[in-house]
Design a protein that fits this description.
homoserine kinase activity; binds the ligand N[C@@H](CCOP(=O)(O)O)C(=O)O; ATP-binding; binds adenosine-5'-diphosphate; 36% helix; 301 residues; alpha+beta; 4-stranded antiparallel beta sheet; Alpha-Beta Plaits; Ribosomal Protein S5, domain 2
């Protein structure tokens, strides 16, 4: 029996659309056990209807595809999911399924795929590297793609900050939040984003906390997506008042993330209280960067 653990991820980190991402200390667990035939899928009923049943399940589909790519027949399977990552909230739940599926299939086959194969396969399946890469290797990552090749750098430690992760109780499917983005942008906006994405990564590496608020801003996706999130501007203003050093939409949203360098508990308490006056229910968690990314172990049945 193989047990796989995969962290949540926050993609974009403001201006780094489809290229910056980080792994966070919140996890999905997937347990797989080969059988003679068939599929037994076991996940909490409360995850319906966001999780597909039967062979349409994303972890299962990914495993099947991985077996096909390696050129081996897929066995029957017992597949159990413990979903710690909220689904369709902008915390990389679909990327976590893809990563779990590839790692589980690869482990069952005796690891024919190496690290680079896994990164490129996961990127191809998810369509962009900013969630799957940090989910696989941990830390804060920057990636660029050329054809199918993924060039990347990982910054392991950003110990001087924590992340206040504010998760609302309504979903926002990534496909819908991508569908409303403009196809083209002006040179001025391109410069705005290139400079800020670079500033974000460089400031996290060097600990320049005073740059993070400016580095978090963006003109590629957040201005369009924020209309799906009631109180977006109120939450940004409140976070600033409470001392946040930066703030961005997590992935495609609707989760929002504030960067903090102190007073984490006070921020959590005050933001919890503030959002409790809204019609939607929000949860505030203080998380840190998961340094190592996904891992797996063999366990007794
Ligand atoms: N734990 C899970 N188990 C099975 N499928 C999942 C799970 N999490 C996400 N998915 C699939 O991914 C879709 C959500 O993907 P997406 O809209 O990109 O949200 P997120 O921002 O959470 O990745 C779900 O509708 C479902 O098809
Ligand atoms: N770069 C993507 C990231 C989507 O992340 P998710 O966690 O919302 O799936 C985008 O912004 O569309």
């Amino acid at each position: 029996m193989i047990k796989v653990f995969v962290p949540a991820t926050s993609a974009n980190m403001g201006a780094g659309f489809d290229c910056l991402g980080m792994a966070l200390s919140l996890y999905n667990t997937v347990i797989v056990d080969p059988r003679e035939e068939g599929l037994i899928l076991d996940f909490p009923e409360s995850d319906l209807p966001l999780v597909e049943e039967g062979e349409n399940n994303l972890v299962y589909r990914t495993m099947k595809e991985t077996y096909k790519i390696v050129g081996r027949p897929m066995p029957g399977l017992y597949l159990r999911q413990i979903n710690g990552i909220p689904i369709t909230r902008g915390l990389g739940s679909s990327a976590a399924c893809i990563v779990a599926g590839i790692i589980a299939a690869n482990a069952l086959m005796g690891q024919p795929l190496k690290k680079r194969d896994i990164i490129e396969l996961a990127t191809r399946m998810d369509g962009h590297p900013d969630n799957v890469l940090p989910a696989l290797i941990g830390g804060v990552t920057v990636a660029a793609m050329e054809n199918e090749r993924v060039y990347y750098v990982k910054q392991m430690s950003v110990d001087f900050v924590r992340f206040a992760v504010m998760i609302p109780d309504f979903p926002l499917p990534t496909s819908m939040a991508r569908g409303i983005l403009p196809e083209e942008i002006s040179r001025k906006d391109a410069v705005y984003n290139i400079s800020r994405a670079s500033l974000m990564m460089a400031s996290l590496i060097t600990g320049k906390v005073e740059n993070l608020w400016a580095a978090s801003d963006d003109r590629l996706h957040q201005p369009y997506r924020k209309k799906f999130i009631p109180h977006f501007d109120d939450i940004v203003a409140k976070a600033k008042e409470l001392g946040a050093k930066g703030m961005f939409l997590s992935g495609a949203g609707p989760t929002m993330i504030a960067i903090l360098d102190k007073d984490y508990q006070r921020f959590q308490y005050e933001m919890d209280y503030y959002t409790s006056t809204f019609e939607d229910k929000w949860e505030v968690h203080i998380l840190e960067v998961c340094r190592d990314g996904a891992w797996w172990e063999e366990v007794e049945a």
